[in-house]
Amino acid sequence: RFRRYIIGNTVMRRLHTGTLWAEGPAWSGAGRYLVWSDIPSNVQLRWIEDDGRVTVFRNPSGYSNGNTFDYEGRQLSCEHGNRRVARYETNGTVTIIAEKFEGKRLNSPNDVVVHPDGSIWFTDPTYGINGNYEGFQAPSELKEAVYRVDPKTGQIDKVTDEVGGPNGLCFSPDYKKLYVADTGAPRDIKVHDVDGKSLRNGKRFIQLDIPGSGAASAAGGIRCDSDGNIWAGARPGVQIIAPNGDRIGMIRLPENCANVCFGGPRRNRLYMTASQSLYAVYVQTVGAH
Fold first, then answer.
1. Pairwise CA distance, residues 244 & 27, whole Å
2. Which of 59, 126, 241, 261 qualifies as a FRET site for 136, CA 20 to 30 Å off?
């Protein structure tokens, strides 16, 4: 089953190394580049496809973590330091998407995805305020949760707080399900039915371990391919889970993989941020979104 998704003669490449903690890869189809975060260094980096150059893309970055691009090609970032979700407009200005809920400051938004209706969904654990390495140490004002921002009114709704440490998230190919990686006490991936502006029928999708050892593993960033499989950054690299919850493949990496995304002109290249490095490999599928 593994060979179904990994091309037999493909080469795993390390595109860059030297970051303190690599996170939040996101592919820009318009720009043909990959942006990702080095959280403790307070910068975003950019790998440019045409010549393989790596440049500093945004400095400071607000200690950003997760990044994505919306349907208009605008970048969205979860900023630990500013405790907000921000959108970087094409004219250089910054739009604050979310920074408070019911008058209280968010904790440290972690990952963000966009629905075709324009709504923005993000997770808000406390990892960025637990200390001064990935942000600024501060008390939590809100329970960890997952939120939805309405594209027309800007209203922020809490869609679930039944999570210990909400981390990565992604939609199924048809946008009818939302998967949420929980790196808190449950250390699992949950799946919810998307019911318009809300979620229902939340349940455990899978609890991962390290194959062959039985030791616990936990997914950070997750992305879905066009077949509905979940690709999860989880020790010992990337674990691939079928829609029915069966683990069907794995990519081993020499570093701890925090997050993944699909990119390239055909969306058939998997980019992986792992500890100090950025890796890439061509796969036998394409990203769902």
1. 27
2. 261
